[in-house]
Amino acid sequence: MKGQEWYQTAEVAEEYDEKRFSRGGRLIDRREKRAVLEAIGPVDGERVLEIACGTGRFTVMLAERGADITGLDISEAMLQEGREKAHAAGVDDHLEFMRGDAARLPFPDDHFDVVFAMRFFHLADTPAKFLTEMARVSKDVVFFDTFNARSTRSLYNWLLPMGSRLYTRGQVERLVDGANLSLAGAEHDFILPYGFYRKIPDWVADPIRNLDVSVVDTPVGQPLASVSYWRTSV
């Protein structure tokens, strides 16, 4: 996994949310949470697994909506941030955070109703193995996002210290087929890469985002989207 050692440090975990989801990054957080909720539907009473849960921003959100949710991550420091977030939200008795390897999930087949991963596959060194494991433990929905090869993300990628794995639609479709999943839906968003929004204040980000949305909703804009959300079924 790219950046594994960097990702697991306490310093990175403590600053993770502030660096990525403050300023203009708040609108990214809102959009990603909406994408998750739209893809997996009502979760009250559903058994859910989040892969690479990080600081638990989705895990806690779904626990607040009644999910029986487990958040798995390789970083103990990130998990500790998640536990503190869950305690502050009053849902720490309704979810579980556990350290583990997404390539060898410690759960039986068909254990969860929903399995999802956000901000994960761009760092995955063996994406087929990870997606196959996600499919194995889900009995219904598998949801994930990717960063796209034919987009502004490819330019921004040069500036990243770790780089990111970028995907074409064809590559995603082959991954889905290889995991014996069926593609049930896809959304494409963000002409401008995430890093751009994180560098600007809210009052600048919001009108630029409105323009971004108007472009990505056109036939010309969709192929240029830097992020795709993929809903698949078992």
TrEMBL record:
Superkingdom to which the source organism belongs: Archaea
Keywords: Methyltransferase, Transferase
UniProt key word Repressor: no
GO molecular-function term, one example from the UniProt record: methyltransferase activity
Pfam family, one: Methyltransf_25
Domain Methyltransferase: 48-139
UniProt-listed GO biological process terms: methylation
Protein's name in the database: Methyltransferase
Originating organism: Halocalculus aciditolerans
